Every structure is written in C-alpha cells, then in structure tokens.
Amino acid sequence: MPNRLSAGEKAFTVFNTLFMLGLCFATLYPFVYVALASLSDPASLAQHRGLLLKPLGVNFDAYKAVFDNPMITTGYRNTLFYVAAGTAINLVATAIGAYVLSRRNLYFKNALMLLIVVTMFFGGGLIPTYLLINKLGMLNTVWALLIPGAIGTFNMIIMRTAFQSVPASLEESAKIDGANDLTVLFRIIIPLSMPVIAVMILWYAVGHWNSYFSALIYLRDRELFPLQLVLREILITNTTDGMMTGAAAEDKIAIAETIKYATIIVSTLPILLLYPFLQKYFVKGVMIGSLKE
To answer: Where is the ABC transmembrane type-1 domain (predicted)?
Structure first.
C-alpha cells in the first residue's frame, strides 16, 4: 500500500501549493492587467480602482492609434533588422573566438583567458566608449548598435567549453583529409554543438530585441530608432499627443494611458509568443556548455 502523508506533510503540501499559486499570480497579473487595460474604454479605466479582471468595455481605439503611428512601424522594421543582423554578427564572432580559445595547442591560452575574463568586471566607461564610437565614424549609424557588443564574454566562455567537449579525433580526421580551421569549425564543431548555438541565438536575439540604451546614446536619426526606444518615448516622455487626433482635451489623459498599455503589448507580444517554443533549448544548451565530460 502507498505510504500515507502525515498531517504535517499534507499541511506543507497545501501551503506550498497556495504559495506557488500566489507567486504565479503576482508574476503574471501585471502583464494580464496591461493586456486588459489596453482593451478597456479609456473613461471607464480612468475611474476604475483595484484589481482589473476583465476589460471595461472592449475598445480597440488604442491599438488603432498605435498601428497608425508611423514610428511604431519604423521601430518594428529597425528592430527586426537589428535582431537579425546583430545576432548573425554575434554568433559568428563568438563562435570564432570560442573556437580559437578551445584549441589545445594555443599559445598563451591562460593569459588570453585572463584578459578576456577581466572585461566581465571592468569596462572603459560610457564617455570613453562614446568617444571611440565617434572616432570610428559609427556615430548615428546602425553599426554603433551591432559592432561594439559583437562578442559577449560570458557567452563565449560557455561556447568555448562546449567546443572543448567535441572529441579531438574528429578534428584530427578532418585535418588529415585536408580540412582547414574554418572547415573544422563550420562543418564539424558547430553542427555538433547545436544546442549551445541555439541558446546563443536566443540570448543574443532577446538582448537585441530589448536593447534601447545604446540607441539612446549613439543614434540621433529617428528613422534608425529601434522599437524599444520608440516605446520609451511613449511611456516616459509622454509623446502620445500626435496619436490622439480628434480627442477632447479632458479625454486625452485617459486615452494616453490605454495607448501606453497597447504599445507595451504590441512591443512585447512577439517575443513572448516565441519564447515558450524555444525554452527547451536553454537548459539543454547551458548544461552542455557548462559541463565537461
């Protein structure tokens, strides 16, 4: 017969279940609130107090105002470009760096690793970095967002560890057949390290999608702004007046709030829908990249 739970174990199970449900509610409710508020009538939402468990009169005017804003469309287009181009640059640069550091016969490997690890704790600072970007002629160009962060030190260390776990006999066999280092990297090492590569793609892509600070510092041309910088303008600097044409002055404050909520949903929903389908690669890829057999 199965062992019966004692009274203390039952109490702990009930408490643990209730605690986890409360934690899930506290984590998910802010996003649910934003989603429901974005669909609510602005006047009703302005008068509402307390928890919001359903839309207060379904109203899509906020979403219409968001999609009619040309900066949202431009920001989406720019962000998709930054994610695609930036992730490709990150992946290639990180893979090449990790491959070099994973070679067993590399001279001064320990010294190089020490210098690389130091960059995780010390940086040049904002002003020297800005001056460098300016001197390189990348100020107010897309390259200012793509090149400076081409390699993430932590990501390269994880990828290096994964590359080291590939049997050396495969590389030796390939070189006997005339393969060079690039062939070994792209035809042998990377295909055998796809879980880690998938994790790197996800980390870099999410980083580019959420990034706004570099654009805020280095870009002046509004046509180059990413979506997150447009979102910042709407949420923080309250640049919603141009999105409320025809609204009465007393209604503008209420409408501005629903526009902000709708903008948050529009800018975060794509990555939220994509993330659950790719979550499985995180644990597998990180474990492969962090453990050496």
So the answer is: 76-274
117, 153 Cβ separation under 8 angstroms: yes
Q: 175-203: string of b/e by CB count within 10 Å (b at 16+)?
A: eeeeeeeeebbeebbbebbebbbbbbbbb
For residues 223, 144, 197 and 164, what is the CA-based torsion angle, rounded to 10 degrees? 180
Cα(51)–Cα(189) distance, integer angstroms? 52
Q: Which residue has the tokens 């792209």?
A: 186
Other Cβ atoms within 10 Å of 212 Cβ, number = 17
For residue 86, the surrounding DSSP H or E stretch is helix 70-101
- Write out pLDDT tens, residues 23-77: 998 888 888 888 888 888 877 777 778 788 888 888 787 888 888 888 888 888 9
- Phi-psi region at 238: left, alpha or beta (left = phi > 0; alpha = psi -120 to 50): left
Q: What pLDDT digit, counting tens, does each position of 83-115 carry?
A: 999 999 999 999 999 999 888 888 888 888 888
pLDDT bin (cut points 50, 70, 90) of residue 269 is confident
Q: Yes or no: say if 200 and 90 are a contact pair by the CB < 8 Å rule.
A: yes
User: Nearest 5°: phi and psi at 62?
Assistant: -65, -45
Contact criterion met (CB below 8 Å) for 56 and 44? yes
In three state form, how does the secondary structure of 5-43 look? CCHHHHHHHHHHHHHHHHHHHHHHHHHHHHHHHHCCCHH
Token output for 188? 């042998």
For residue 256, the Cα-to-chain-centroid distance in whole angstroms is: 27
Non-local (6+) Cβ contacts of 60 within 8 A are 39
The closest of 89, 82, 42, 43 to 62, measured between CA atoms, is 42
The domains found in the chain, sorted by start residue, are 69-237 (1.10.3720.10)
Distance CA 258, CA 38 (A): 5
Can you read off the two tokens belonging to residue 167? 């049997």
